[in-house]
Every structure is written in C-alpha cells, then in structure tokens.
From TrEMBL:
This is Polysaccharide deacetylase family protein. It comes from the Bacteria. Coiled coil: none annotated. The lineage of its organism: Bacteria, Pseudomonadati, Bacteroidota, Flavobacteriia, Flavobacteriales. Residues 35-246 form the NodB homology domain. Keywords: Signal. Gene3D superfamilies: Glycoside hydrolase/deacetylase (3.20.20.370).
Length: 305
C-alpha cells in the first residue's frame, strides 16, 4: 500500500513537471503563422502608383526595386525588333507617398546586366543605389533584385559585402520553399502565373515555414487581362489570415534571427541583441523577445541539428 501511494505521488510530481515545461514543436512566423507572401516589383516606373494602391487596399506589403539613376526621368529602351519602349519613372518627391507602406530596394543605378560588367562596375551600380535611396528615404535599404535577374555565385558574394542581405533572381522555382542562399533568391513565379498556384497555397496546411514569392513589373499591367488577374490575386490572398505579407528585407531579417536562436533539449534562448521570434510549443504559440529564455521538456523535431 505504502509503495502504491509513493508511486501515485511520484507520478503526480512527474506529470506536474511535464505540465510546467512545454515541448518545442517548431519556429513560426509572427503570430504563429507558417505561410508568407513576398511581392517583389522591379524598375520603379509610374505604374507602381496603381499597384501600390491595390496592395494598400488589401493590406499587402510589396518590395519595390528601384534604379536610382532613373528616378524622375523618362527613358527610351531600344528593343530587338527596332522599336523603342519609353518608361516613365517615379519622381523622388513622391517616393514617400507611393511606397509609404512598402519596402524600397536596390535594382542597380542604371539597370546594367551584372554578368556583362566588371566587379568595380557592379559595386558602383549597387553602392550608388544604396547611397541615393538611403539619402532620399532615410530608411535602411537591405534588399535587391538583380537587373534582368542576372547573377552568379561570385556576384552574389561580392554584393553580400555591401550591406545587402538578399538578392532576387527571375529563375522561377514554382515551389513554396525558402531559399538556400538569400543572395541568390529564386522566386516562386512571375505574377502572370501567380493565380495558377494560389489555390494550392491557400489550402496548404503544413507545420513548416513556407513562402509564396511573386515577382513582376507594374508596367506589364498595361495588359488588362494581367491587371485583372493581379486584382483577383490580391483580393483572394489579402483575405487569408494565415499568411504573413512581408517585405523581402523584413523576412530575411526574421529568418536570420531564427538562425541565431540557441536551442537544446532543455531550453530555447533568444540572444539579447536579436529580433523577437515566435515559437510553436505544445502549450501554444509564444513570442520570445530578445534576451528571453524558455525552459522546455523535449524538442519534437531535430531542428537544432
Ligand atoms: Zn528591371
């Protein structure tokens, strides 16, 4: 009898300690979300005005990659068939209004093809953008899209020393996975294909971080069918409460913050100089602020390996 009482008592103690320490399941995006959306648009032409209004209407965030050398000008782009396409670029005094709710990023001062120019010229293209865009916006500029999507390992490495933390290509993956290299960030698809993948993403319910990464040019929306598709895409994805709409820079910062979190079988510790991060525990979603530690019982996945 005495043995039985001890056994019951120790089981009770064991279970109550289980209750106090939750199990770690996985990292999530803010508010426990597992899905994210990045909308990345290039060139900074005046059609961005209508696009940003559409995004604002649906509370979606875009990353707008600008060529600082063309801000406020009209430029003719010669085409292979002999025609010239004229582009009008947003003016510097309207940057604050147009991109108020959106990220501003680098796209090369003069939109040169990085695989056709020297390292010195590449650095000039990037650093001039960084300097001018920072000066005009008073913001921290950390993202870029490669002009023509052209890059390679050595270009990506070169640019990673400038303060840029992510570089987007145009090599569509048609997947919802996170990139292996933030500096060679291959998107899910161009916006002309985005509707084809929308239902799959809206219905997706995986316990892992995913990303729907759409890119394009607002000047392509002169085609009414494409514009209507974009309106439909934004209306539908804007209603999804489980998708984090985020700029590429903020997303990169968040993913890097997760990488810095220390985790073992007993605790999860967010370094004091880190961003807040969100975790999924057996007891629910928790926000772990910088410098905070949570004691855990077990780790459900071997995420720290
Ligand atoms: Zn471009």
């Amino acid at each position: 009898m005495k043995r039985l009482i001890i056994l019951i008592f120790s089981s009770f103690l064991f279970c109550s300690s289980c209750k106090q320490k939750p199990s770690f399941i996985d990292f999530t995006y803010p508010d426990g979300k597992h899905k994210a959306l990045v909308l990345s648009y290039d060139d900074g032409t005046i059609q961005d005005i209508e696009l940003t209004q559409l995004l604002d209407k649906h509370k979606l965030i875009g990353t707008f990659n600008l060529n600082s050398g063309y801000i406020g000008v009209t430029r003719g782009w010669p085409q292979k068939n002999g025609d010239t396409i004229y582009q009008k670029y947003v003016s510097k005094d309207s940057l604050f209004i147009i991109y108020k709710n959106h990220e501003i990023a680098v796209h090369g001062e003069l939109h040169k093809n990085f695989t056709d120019i020297t390292n010195k010229e590449i650095l000039k293209e990037v650093n001039t953008d960084l300097e001018i865009l920072t000066q005009l916006t008073k913001r921290e500029i950390i993202s870029m899209a490669y002009p023509f999507g052209s890059t390679n390992d050595s270009i990506a490495k070169l640019i990673s020393n400038t303060g840029i933390v992510n570089g987007r290509t145009v090599a569509d993956t048609y997947k919802f996975s996170l990139p292996e290299n933030y500096m060679i960030w291959n998107p899910t698809c161009h916006d002309s294909k985005a509707l084809d993948y929308l239902s799959e993403y809206l219905e997706m319910d995986k316990q892992e971080l995913s990303l729907f990464y759409v890119w394009g040019h607002s000047w392509e929306f002169g085609d009414t069918k494409r514009w209507n598709n974009m309106v439909e895409f934004c209306e539908k994805i804007g209603k999804a409460k489980d998708i984090w709409s985020v700029g590429n820079g903020e997303l990169t910062k968040y993913l890097k913050a997760i990488e810095r979190v220390e985790i073992n079988e007993k605790k999860i510790m967010n370094p004091a100089d880190n961003e807040p991060i969100w975790i999924n525990l057996s007891t629910g979603i928790e926000k772990l602020k910088a410098g905070e530690t949570i004691k855990i019982k077990t780790v459900a996945n071997n995420v720290y390996n």
